Amino acid sequence: MPEPLDAALAQVRALLLDPALTRAVAAGRRRGRRPTVVRAELRPVTLKAGPRLQIATSDGARPYTRNVTPGPETAAAVDELLAEPFGNWHVETTDATLQLRVTKSGEAQVHRAAAPARPVAPPGGNDRAKEYLLDPGDEIFTEIGGSAAKRRQVDAFLRALAATLPDELTGPLRVVDLGCGNAYLTFAAYRYLSGRGLDVELIGVDVREDQRRRNTELAQRLGWADRVSFVAGTIADAVVDPAPDLVLALHACDTATDEALARAVRWQARWVLAAPCCHHDLAKQLRAQPTPAPYELLTRQGILRERFADVLTDALRAGLLRVHGYRAEVVEFVDSQHTPRNLLIRARRTDTGATAPQRAEYRELVDQWRVTPRLETLLAADEPPAA
């Protein structure tokens, strides 16, 4: 039965301020009204300074996380969120679950249930909790935020990184994260690498100045500002000096991945890990011309053409890296249920040039499909003109 909205929100407020709160999410909007944020998530956390209520909000473009102290500050923050015209609230405590939906008429549909029993896995056996290189509950995520899916991607990326770097690595390690965005990977990589006892200096590059300011403030709050810094600029042109040993790029869109790979080759970086995102460039080229025989069946259906373009793009990227002195492989770094963009180009500089058959293999594939990979264009611009 519908209930008065004010009375239902009072019940939500009581649960949000209850010490037994485990998680709450507000989302959606009421008819004819729009909240200032598209989503809010609340959960209790324990910091070195003591217990806090963590409030993570998103405006649809950027996340924002803050931790408020129990008492008047928490009450004020909760009241501020309850005043937003959210259409739905989902609140969980150790004892109960409450779901509130605001109807078109402005009343509240409220569903209450006892909290489900949480099974406890027996010690040992095959049901042990997954071991993480960087636990999703690590305190740095309290500061930097990030969804559970993003944390899993970052941990999977770190596993690939751990498999790439030699165990006996010593000395300073200079790292650049190209297209770092909210810097989840930047901070997590620093946490992991410094935890290995390495002397790490890490720079994050993103085109947006507001991201640079935000990430710099986070580095200061974490006490890492002397080792983790940020630069505003494009992947191709941002000033990074001296050259890095390790280049990272997580889900740089389309040809931005090519720009990251080209920059790594120019720097002669020792290691490169790039997880591509969308693949539009070669897909567009394939649509613009006839398919070479006898491969028409590969591209006749639109969905197959798009997937083939993905495969061709990353195969040619790996081939070009090999031509420029890298041992490159394409691997799956995270399960596809977490993200469909789950391939990783992992490369290590060998300082040995490609063989003539390897160069011919790459050139034959490009010529047969009559495509011009963006990475080839970028690297050709760095080569001196033929005499």
Automatic annotation (TrEMBL):
<dbReference type="GO" id="GO:0032259">
    <property type="term" value="P:methylation"/>
</dbReference>
<protein>
    <submittedName>
        <fullName>Methyltransferase domain-containing protein</fullName>
    </submittedName>
</protein>
<dbReference type="InterPro" id="IPR029063">
    <property type="entry name" value="SAM-dependent_MTases_sf"/>
</dbReference>
<keyword id="KW-0808">Transferase</keyword>
<dbReference type="Pfam" id="PF13679">
    <property type="entry name" value="Methyltransf_32"/>
</dbReference>
<dbReference type="GO" id="GO:0008168">
    <property type="term" value="F:methyltransferase activity"/>
</dbReference>
<feature type="domain" description="Methyltransferase">
    <location>
        <begin position="150"/>
        <end position="285"/>
    </location>
</feature>
<dbReference type="InterPro" id="IPR025714">
    <property type="entry name" value="Methyltranfer_dom"/>
</dbReference>
<keyword id="KW-0489">Methyltransferase</keyword>
<dbReference type="GO" id="GO:0005737">
    <property type="term" value="C:cytoplasm"/>
</dbReference>
